[in-house]
Structure formats: C-alpha cells, structure tokens
Automatic annotation (TrEMBL):
Gene source species: Buddleja alternifolia
Pfam families the record matches: NAD_binding_10
Protein name: NAD(P)-binding domain-containing protein
GO cellular component: chloroplast
Occurrences of domain NAD(P)-binding (ranges): 28-234
GO MF terms held by the record: oxidoreductase activity
Source taxon at top rank: Eukaryota
CDD domains: SDR_a5
Protein family according to the UniProt entry: Belongs to the NAD(P)-dependent epimerase/dehydratase family.
Amino acid sequence: MPRVPFILRISVVAMADLSSKSTVLVTGAGGRTGQIVYKKLKERSDKYNAKGFVRSQESKEKIGGHDDVYIGDIRNIETIVPAVQGIDALIILTSAVPKMKPGFDPTKGGRPEFYYEEGSFPEQVDWIGQKNQIDAAKAAGVKQIVLVGSMGGTNPNHPLNSLGNGNILIWKRKSEQYLADSGIPYTIIRAGGLQDKDGGLRELLVGKDDELLQTETKSVPRADVAEVCIQALNFEESKFKAFDLASKPEGTGTPTKDFKALFSHITTRF
Ligand SMILES: NC(=O)c1ccc[n+]([C@@H]2O[C@H](COP(=O)([O-])OP(=O)(O)OC[C@H]3O[C@@H](n4cnc5c(N)ncnc54)[C@H](OP(=O)(O)O)[C@@H]3O)[C@@H](O)[C@H]2O)c1
C-alpha cells in the first residue's frame, strides 16, 4: 500500500466525515416541537449539522443562542434564503398560533374565544409561509422536506377551522399539496393532538384520511413527533409519503423502535 503523508490522511478522514453528515434546517425551532427536533439534531452531531430558524432573538437565546440559528420571518422569503443555503433537508415546524381573547373566566363556564394577530392568520403563515420555505429550499437544491401538519384536514367543518375564523386546517392542507406537487422528496406528518410527554415510550400508529380520529388513540407526544421527523431523514421508505400519526397510551403496546418498518407500513402519497 503506498505511504500517505499523515496530514493528508487526517484531512481525507475529516472530509469523509463532513460529506457523510447531513445538514438539516428546522424552522419553528423555538416552538414546542421544533425545539425538541433542534436539540435532538444537536445531540446527534456525528450525523447531522443542525441549523435552526426562529422569529426573534429571544427565541434564538431560548434554544442556546448558537451561530447556526437564523432569525427571520417565513412570510418574507428573503429572510429564509440565507438559512437554506447548503442544507440537505428541511424540517418545517412553523404554524400560525391562535391566541385566547382576554377576559375569559373558566369559573363562569362557556368556552374561550380565540383570535389571530393581524398578518399572522393561517393563510399568511401556514400557506404563504410554508410555500415560501418550500420555494426557497427547492431553489437551494434541498434533497428532502419534512412537513408537520395536523390530522382533521379531510373535514372542512372541523372545529379547528372556525377558531379565530382562520380555516387553519384548510391552509395547512393547501401547503401540504404544494409540497407533494413540488417534485422534492417529502414526508408529510399529520399529527394528532400533541402532548408534552416523554418520547420513546409508546407504540406509534400511522394512518390515513383521519381514520385514527374515529378511534380512542388520537394523540401523540411532541417528543415522538420530533423523533419521527428525524427518522424520516434516514429511510427511503419515508419519502413521497403523507400519513396521520398518533400513539397508543403508555404501557399498552410495544414502544416503536423500528422506524423503517413504521414508514414501510405507509402506502399513501397524500
Ligand atoms: N397543538 C396540537 O395539538 C397540534 C395537533 C396536531 C398538529 N399540530 C401542529 O404541529 C406543529 C407543531 O406544533 P407545536 O405546538 O409544537 O408548535 P408551536 O409551539 O405553536 O410553534 C410554532 C412555531 O412557529 C413559529 N412561527 C409562527 N409564525 C412565524 C413566522 N411568521 N415566521 C417564523 N416563525 C413563525 C413560532 O414562532 P414564535 O415562537 O416566535 O411564536 C413557533 O416557534 C404545528 O404545525 C401545529 O399546528 C398541533
């Protein structure tokens, strides 16, 4: 075998290491699921170069203030462009967030009312904002996009649509369709009710067309959704697929470890 100078050998190893790592941008990285994804990617730094996208300096500091976190607004595509340069994959975890109208008193019964801030309706965030991300990532040559949406989108009369007159599930569905038509390998995860509970402890369930909403198992921990987002990057079986995601209650079923098998069960492209 020819003698290779030591320095050269080190740099070849370093280059091989760099090229085998995947650079992944998570948007909504200051959000409740987004920050779990960002943290998991950072913890797996042997495999991923993590990048984050948040809306404010405050959110950036909340997740550690690292230089790999970009600040911008998804409604303005120019602010997304720098963040998507050189990425292999994009995980979209941005969403319009309804706010509760002040003055609600739970002791008096009734239901709270919700509103969206001017300019932050689902049409602007879940449609234009997601579309901007898909367009910017496509122009930058991204190889895969994972988009987290919500179950309930098959029913235009779903109660979530009347929240703040925002039609949130309708606009989310429109951006999902846009992604599916983009030609970019995609994974669309339509989550059930999100829970702030530990991940890795439940059997995950995948479904289609909101069928899981007719069952008792229609919620899933945010930590499990975050894990599925990252695992989707590892398997060809996750690509060009859209599916509902829920979980069995903790203590029933077998906690999901084999994500290749989970993705293989999904047959739906949209
Ligand atoms: N809640 C549920 O039970 C449920 C059920 C099914 C699916 N989902 C969906 O699952 C996903 C994750 O939910 P989550 O509760 O973890 O999310 P979340 O905490 O509400 O986070 C949403 C993120 O979007 C960011 N964002 C909003 N507008 C933005 C803009 N114009 N530019 C940049 N960023 C913007 C927010 O930034 P700031 O931090 O600056 O506000 C926030 O970090 C969402 O798509 C949600 O709709 C939720």
